[in-house]
Amino acid sequence: MKRHRTIWEFVSVMDKWAPLVPGYISHEIINDRQSTWTFMGDIGIMKKKVSLKIDITAKGVMGPMINSILKTFVSKDDD
Fold first, then answer.
1. Which of 14, 38, 61, 68 has an alpha carbon 20 to 30 Å from 30's alpha carbon atom?
2. Strand order in the sheet with 24-29
3. From the first residue on, what is the mean pLDDT of each consecutive set of 10 residues in the chain (79 residues)?
């Protein structure tokens, strides 16, 4: 149970793990349910800066949609 508590203490504070996301540039917490994220994506020969507004709802994060966007725009390596 202590391990779960330790994990939750880490993931519940976005500032701790946000910089670990590939392509991460910055994030801003608007309130306890909204934030904006900026990433650098690599699209073939072109790099593109992508900004997303993320809304966490009672049903959870729109994970599948966001993941598909990130797979398209965010570099897979940490250049």
1. 68
2. 24-29, 34-43, 46-55
3. 78 85 90 87 82 69 58 48
| pLDDT reported for residue 26 | 94
Q: Model's pTM, two decimal places?
A: 0.57
pLDDT (0 to 100) of residue 55: 77
* Count of positions (residues) in the chain: 79
What's the alpha-carbon Rg for the chain, to the nearest Å? 14
Residue 67, phi-psi category: left (phi > 0), alpha (psi -120 to 50), beta (remainder): alpha
CA distance 46 to 61: 29
Instruction: Answer for the pair 25, 39: CB distance below 8 angstroms, yes or no.
Output: yes
